[in-house]
């Protein structure tokens, strides 16, 4: 006898009426016990009611797994009321991880073969929701037959089920190619929308399907033109736009079909211009259609005038009051700045205005785009705007803004003085946020500009006297005062206001830096060295400097203490050599950002030779990678360190007459290029160890955005032995900044043809990217 239980409506009311969670659990446990008892007794008339209550309990987050088999029984029932609840339960309680889901395959197949539309719709919905790869293979032919059924209700659901099947089993694409061409003649917008989605999935997963559907581009153009020119329709229009969902889907499909295909792109050019000029953007629906049109124009081989029109549309988006539309416009312009720089450059004032947006995501995107728009013609104006933004920007943007300004100044500086002034202003405004190499770059710049030594030391002294909290600025100022302190005291610089500085003031300022609690150990080291150098540049007595240096001989910081002890020894034992040892550093010739190719190759070769001589290079890291080519290489060992003969490396480096002839040069190879990121391989085979190949991997970034978290991993077949050394960094600055290099050592004792698989992981344009590819075209010289 079935234990009486609550109706579904009564159960919902009782659960909602529970005042505490304990009362709710008590009600649910009691009712679940009734449901279990009913399932055990096998009451067929009330089984669907019990399962309906169990599904409500499942929606509340309580366990309901014991109802899975009841779903199968209800699906097999001939009654529609049972099938409806059974299929709903299957969609909620079953998935691919449950073996029980395979048991309903025959029931779905039988229901699809029936002529009852409601039952066919239930079966198709269930299959498209939880159908596994095995179910899709078994039921693909039944779904194909339903694609051409007279009923639009069944056809629409069959198309959506076919989309799910293609996503699960891409090899089923050949089955659905013929019906798609017929379905494109449908007038029912729901079926047409599903068909366009199905064709899009087919083209993305099958090159053969992509080639096949390029023939229907004129028909797609005709459908979209009809939608654009059709007047208001109560059934399909949204905010005055005729079926924007279907328009967006067709535009996405046209973008795929026209990519890298001249004929298809030419066919859709006129239509895209019509959509771009006639779409109303006062509502979100029109903006969505217009944005998809812009993406399609930029992705196909469109006419130059059409691309300018697309950029202008994005420029209008920047003036929209909706923050989401402005963000989309900034992101799109950032991707287009490399291919259409001059067109994007026209909207530079609007982009700069977006820097002052209170929304952090908008200001960050505007900053990235502004940095990408800097060139030699606008560097002064853009740098001034960016420096103004740096003074008031949020702390989380200061590091990116300061780094971008420094890189732009390094690439496009019109004069050395302007370059120095720009870096000084950045250091003064956001010194603690600048990159680690800013101090070294500025000291190198000042050292190479002999005509600006007096100007630089006076500017830095004035900045240091005003503020000693910005550590990079203090370090550069201390270095410059130590090197050119005599020019500071002369006061003969015509480019700055007259400034009379006494020796005591300079020494007092450096002592203040040494004693300040804000000074880092590295900063104190700069100041101590500056004092020591001033002992040879000042005309007064050096006893005060000697006393300060001796104090730090017992400093707790080991580095500072060692430096002070050495300087004390220099005062006491080698005072006659002090002037020669502490003389000014020689001028440094600062090269441009564009490095000559041959010099770059020779530098990589020198790095490789250095790696050869060192038997245990520092920071080397042996990676235990999975052998992506031939399975897991569990017994792979690192290549044995080389044991060159004494003096062999010196003979080779000096190229003395008695040295053996150098090995033949191996041409470099570019193996990857995407959105400005390039990966080049250069090769060296040491003459002493012919089985060893050294590969220098060099990654460069010419795009408008930094590449961060860059990781390069490699794998080789089992017959090879691979050792990866630590990379030089994980960040590739935008606009051709410093590259990232990594050394690969491959031992090939059998001299077999080399195959190399690389995996790149990085973040670019705010997106995480992973690329895996195989390199099979390595030069023959790398293994013969």
Automatic annotation (TrEMBL):
GO cellular component, one term: AP-1 adaptor complex
Record's keyword terms, sorted: Cytoplasmic vesicle, Golgi apparatus, Membrane, Protein transport, Transport
Subcellular location: Cytoplasmic vesicle membrane; Endomembrane system; Golgi apparatus
Positions of the UniProt region annotated as Disordered: 592-613, 629-648
GAE domain mapped to chain residues: 664-779
Gene Ontology terms: biological process: intracellular protein transport; vesicle-mediated transport
Residue ranges the record marks as coiled coil: none
SMART domains, per database record: Alpha_adaptinC2
UniProt keyword annotation of Transit peptide present: no
Membrane disposition: Peripheral membrane protein
Major site of localization recorded for this protein: membrane
Compositional bias of kind Basic and acidic residues: 597-606
PANTHER family: ADAPTIN, ALPHA/GAMMA/EPSILON
Similarity-based family: Belongs to the adaptor complexes large subunit family.
Protein name: AP-1 complex subunit gamma
Natural source organism: Panthera leo (Lion)
Gene: AP1G2
